[in-house]
Amino acid sequence: MSDLLALAAFISFAIFLLAGKQGKVAAVAGWGCVVLNLFSELPALLSEGNLLYPVLTLFSVPFFVITAERIIRNDAVVLQLSRTAALATVIWVPFSLVPFLHDLVVAMVVNQAFVVITSLGHHPQLFAWDVIGENGFYNQIILPCTGLSAIAILAGVAFGNRDLSARQAVSAFLLIVPVIWVLNLLRVSAVFIAVSGRWFARFPDPGIAPAGDANFFWAHNIFAEGFAIIGLLILFRILCRIIPQRAVFAKNVVRVYRDRVCAAVKVLQAEMKRSFS
């Protein structure tokens, strides 16, 4: 997220958290910053051969339209969803904007991943405080590689519920923070080993990876991203067992957006019939 949009999202969602329903406009502004950021990063993501976030960007526009409309109408489910997004943003943004926090979490991932890769029999080298290299492959660890975004999202989901017991809060924290941290270290290490070892060198080159690096495309953009999504879904399922209210909330969120999409499709079909009649 760009610094300006990150700061704007942080301020908007913080106002919403403090003001509640009275901060509906701030909630809409916060969501708007998120959508604008997706579009601002689209050229870089496409140049890197990333597929997931461009797809999310495509669907973010109708999502934002529905979300803004339901917020203005005081929809309890979407307001609760906005609280979840607000908490995630408030957790994430300080690590994005404050150099000390940013460098601290990146350095932790670099050093710990270095230990994991070495313990698996490989011989990486630190070429900079945030760059690990081996066999001609140099991997710079950046904030999105730290797993912090996944931690922030699931923390927002868990602690967006106002009625958590102390036991639920502790269990959710232990599920989210240490588990995602360890899983992300394994992901970063596996991608590094796969690319430096050219595991996917024989895979077809889609022609959209930087410098034609199909090996990195398959290791990072396909397999690592895919397993990360599956892992998050599994953790969310476990989280719903810890906090059953979250499962009900998830079903309500799906229902709200499904109903709005179906209603829009029916209106569009009616307009098309009227145009051709």
Mean pLDDT: 88
Main sheet properties:
3 strands, antiparallel
Oligomer: single chain
Q: What separation lies between the terminal Cα atoms?
A: 47 Å
Structural category = mainly alpha
Number of helices: 10
If you compute it from the alpha carbons, what radius of gyration comes out, rounded to the nearest whole angstrom? 21 Å
What is the H/E string? HHHHHHEEEHHHH
Q: Which shape, going by the Cα principal axes?
A: globular
pLDDT < 50 stretches: none
Overall strand count = 3
Tally of distinct domains: 2
β-sheet strand percentage: under 5%
**Main sheet: which strands, in order across?**
1-2-3
Give the helix proportion (percent range): over 70%
How does this model look, in words?
With 277 residues, this protein is mainly alpha-helical. 75% of the residues lie in helices and 4% in strands. It is built from ten helices and three strands; from the N terminus they run ααααααβββαααα. A three-stranded antiparallel sheet has the order 1-2-3, covered by helices on one side. β2 and β3 form a beta hairpin. The chain is globular.
Q: Quick gist of this model?
A:
By secondary structure, the protein is mostly helical. Helices cover 75% and strands 4% of the residues.
Features:
277 residues, 10 helices, globular, 3 strands, 2 domains, mainly alpha, 4% strand
Set down the secondary structure blueprint:
Elements: H1 3-19, H2 24-40, H3 42-47, H4 52-72, H5 76-97, H6 99-119, E1 125-128, E2 131-134, E3 137-140, H7 148-159, H8 166-196, H9 214-242, H10 244-276
Helix pairs in contact: 1-2, 1-5, 2-4, 2-5, 5-6, 5-7, 6-8, 7-8, 8-9, 9-10
